[in-house]
């Protein structure tokens, strides 16, 4: 080893968890080093909307809303462990450790957010619907009234929770918040997205941005008193990374970029003593050195870019693409695997992607908005399986839709829609990540991942041709009767659309189906805003979907103080973890989501270090 440095705390990784761990530790008077293997800080969070689920947040407290901890914990446990939850069992039937983490999150998340808002000066705001959607606002108000919440117009425009109708969800709107963005961050966000597009897609996207309906959304985002519109949270991750950077400078944190941590060092008694580092990209013994500290906080992300670990722990998921940074490779997890306890390794933070884009190096970058299909907004549209049969609720959140793929024989699904859906919901901003940015009927600017056909039979033939290049990679063959089943699926769906009730999957029947969608199309006069009869004449279009993730969910098992546990389930002195490298108590659900617990448990790690 060529040199040695001493700190109180070394934070490894600079995503939202690492930034918070470094900031909080430094603010509490510790000498801190933040080590990042990339050339710039921010991690996957740079491209994120920085949406966070925070109970007891300031916006709720300002409205006099006091949450009941017991009800909130029941809601968390129920939807993290739907098959184990028992209301009268100890810890509601879930593992005690996960229960303690849920309890700690409830107590600390709001305090963490207060600290960050005060330090950064960036205001938190309610996350919003994607447009001025009165259907959702009316449903919000009705549920708020039923829960005894104040009739606050700003709260009524907030995004609802997952599972908002659950009787234990006493605050079904207002827990999702994010940070107000600005023009510079918005501009940088779109530059990053546009740089990932090929020429055809870029021309199409720029054309779509000039459409009056899109310009109206832009105007709403900038000028509406309710802060709505498609630009509402674009670039929030960029702005927050910029704010963190200034705060790290203020508190004199040593930010060491382009440095890889190869190992965590321990003393003779098994306590942490530092880390072994080297310049990123170099693996020569002469380049290594040691940084010494009695406390190390690991925030290195998941192992989604490590196929060996995926095969070992999460083989159930036929994941085709991951939206996290390439540095989320699980290298330190492999290094420490024999020393620490691991948890929730078989799960991922799942979503969908377009199969074609998972193989496109230009478009399918690691910027989080580029490949994932967060929403399927089209009302005259359905998703079918490889037999042509409708397979799930298209209006469900991405984490719910993607659960359908948890089977080896369900590797793709097909999103089928008509020309009207493109005209009403298409465009870079209309569907956001459903990738329909082109003028319907102009094949010159139709992206290659959008398959067209004049009839359902023609569409089926073209889909088969489209899938040929992927046959050696995934099971994507269509059944011989795909076209006939697809026609029957369209006919059945159209009947539901006219009646307003989806008898198969309950589409549009929950507030959660409404709140994350685009608003009702102006020509949709049917009872259910999420359904409109698919054209009987064509042309038709399709995109092939597959399972992807934005990171893994398992990793270092930690306690309620974010301390990493040994294989004997005892805290390892001085070793902490937060973010996607730590096991998430959310289990198979989407409880807490990702960035909120990443920052909250990082905050708790820093507090524990300062107190002990």
UniProtKB/TrEMBL annotation:
| Keyword Flavoprotein tagged | yes
Name a Pfam family for this protein.
FAD_binding_2
GO BP terms, alphabetized: steroid metabolic process
EC? 1.3.99.4
Fetch the Gene3D superfamilies from UniProt: FAD/NAD(P)-binding domain, Succinate dehydrogenase/fumarate reductase flavoprotein, catalytic domain
Taking the record's annotation, the residue ranges forming a coiled coil are none
Q: Which InterPro entries match?
A: FAD-dep_OxRdtase_2_FAD-bd (IPR003953), FAD-oxidoreductase_2 (IPR050315), FAD/NAD-bd_sf (IPR036188), Succ_DH/fumarate_Rdtase_cat_sf (IPR027477)
Which SUPFAM superfamilies does this UniProt record tie to the protein?
FAD/NAD(P)-binding domain, Succinate dehydrogenase/fumarate reductase flavoprotein, catalytic domain
Name the UniProt key words of this record, in alphabetical order.
Answer: FAD, Flavoprotein, Oxidoreductase
The main enzyme category here is oxidoreductase
Q: What is its cofactor?
A: FAD
Q: Which GO terms describe its molecular function?
A: 3-oxosteroid 1-dehydrogenase activity
FAD-dependent oxidoreductase 2 FAD-binding domain mapped to chain residues: 8-592
Q: What name does UniProt use for this protein?
A: 3-oxosteroid 1-dehydrogenase
- Per the UniProt record, the source organism is BD1-7 clade bacterium
UniProt lineage: Bacteria, Pseudomonadati, Pseudomonadota, Gammaproteobacteria, Cellvibrionales
């Amino acid at each position: 080893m060529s040199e040695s440095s001493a700190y109180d705390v070394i934070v490894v990784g600079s995503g939202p968890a690492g930034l918070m761990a470094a900031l909080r530790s430094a603010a509490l008077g510790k000498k801190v080093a933040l080590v990042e293997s990339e050339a710039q800080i921010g991690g996957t969070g740079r491209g994120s909307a920085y949406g966070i689920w925070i109970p007891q947040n300031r916006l709720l407290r300002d409205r006099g809303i006091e949450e009941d901890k017991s009800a909130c914990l029941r809601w968390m446990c129920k939807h993290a462990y739907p098959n184990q939850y028992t209301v009268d069992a100890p810890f509601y039937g879930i593992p005690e450790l996960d229960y303690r983490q849920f309890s700690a999150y409830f107590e600390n998340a709001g305090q963490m957010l207060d600290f960050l808002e005060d330090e950064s000066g960036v205001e938190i705001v309610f996350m919003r619907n994607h447009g001025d959607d009165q259907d959702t606002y009316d449903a919000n108000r009705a549920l708020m009234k039923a829960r005894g919440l104040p009739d606050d117009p700003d709260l009524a425009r907030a995004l609802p929770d997952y599972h908002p109708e659950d009787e234990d969800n006493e605050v079904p709107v207002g827990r999702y918040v994010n940070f107000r963005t600005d023009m510079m961050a918005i501009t940088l966000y779109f530059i990053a997205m546009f740089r990932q597009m090929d020429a055809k897609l870029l021309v199409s996207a720029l054309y779509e941005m000039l459409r009056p309906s899109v310009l109206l959304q832009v105007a709403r985002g900038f000028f509406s008193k309710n802060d709505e519109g498609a630009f509402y949270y674009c670039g929030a991750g960029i702005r927050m990374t910029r704010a963190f950077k200034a705060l790290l400078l203020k508190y004199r944190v040593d930010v060491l970029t382009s440095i890889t941590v190869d190992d965590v060092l321990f003393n003779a008694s098994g306590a942490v003593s530092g880390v072994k580092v080297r310049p990123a990209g170099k693996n020569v013994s002469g380049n290594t050195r040691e940084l010494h500290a009695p406390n190390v906080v690991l925030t290195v992300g998941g192992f989604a870019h490590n196929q060996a670990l995926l095969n070992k722990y999460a083989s159930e998921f036929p994941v085709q693409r991951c939206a996290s940074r390439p540095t989320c490779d699980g290298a330190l997890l492999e290094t420490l695997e024999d020393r620490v306890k691991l948890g929730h390794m078989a799960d991922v933070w799942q979503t969908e992607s377009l199969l074609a884009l998972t193989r496109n190096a230009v478009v399918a970058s690691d910027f989080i908005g580029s490949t994932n299909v967060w929403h399927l907004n089209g009302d005259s549209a359905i998703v079918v399986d490889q037999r042509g049969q409708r397979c799930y609720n298209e209006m469900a959140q991405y984490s719910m839709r993607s659960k359908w793929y948890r089977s080896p024989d369900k590797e793709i699904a097909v999103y089928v829609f008509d020309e009207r859906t493109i005209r009403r919901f298409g465009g870079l901003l209309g569907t956001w990540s459903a990738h329909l940015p082109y003028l319907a009927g102009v094949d010159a600017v139709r992206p290659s991942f959008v398959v067209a056909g004049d009839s359902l039979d023609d569409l089926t033939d073209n889909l088969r041709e489209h899938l040929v290049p992927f046959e050696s990679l995934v099971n994507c063959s269509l059944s011989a009767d795909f076209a006939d089943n697809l026609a029957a699926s369209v006919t059945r769906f159209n009947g539901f659309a006219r009646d307003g009730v989806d008898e198969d999957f309950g589409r549009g029947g929950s507030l959660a189906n409404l709140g994350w969608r685009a608003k009702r199309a102006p020509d949709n006069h049917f009872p259910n805003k999420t359904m409109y009869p698919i054209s009987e004449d064509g042309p038709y279009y399709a995109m092939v979907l597959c399972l992807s993730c934005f990171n893994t969910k398992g990793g270092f098992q930690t306690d309620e103080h974010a301390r990493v546990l040994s294989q004997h389930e005892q805290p390892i002195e001085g070793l902490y973890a937060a973010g996607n490298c730590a096991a998430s108590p959310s289990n198979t659900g989407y409880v807490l989501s990702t960035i909120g617990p990443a920052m909250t448990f990082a905050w708790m790690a820093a507090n524990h270090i300062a107190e002990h």
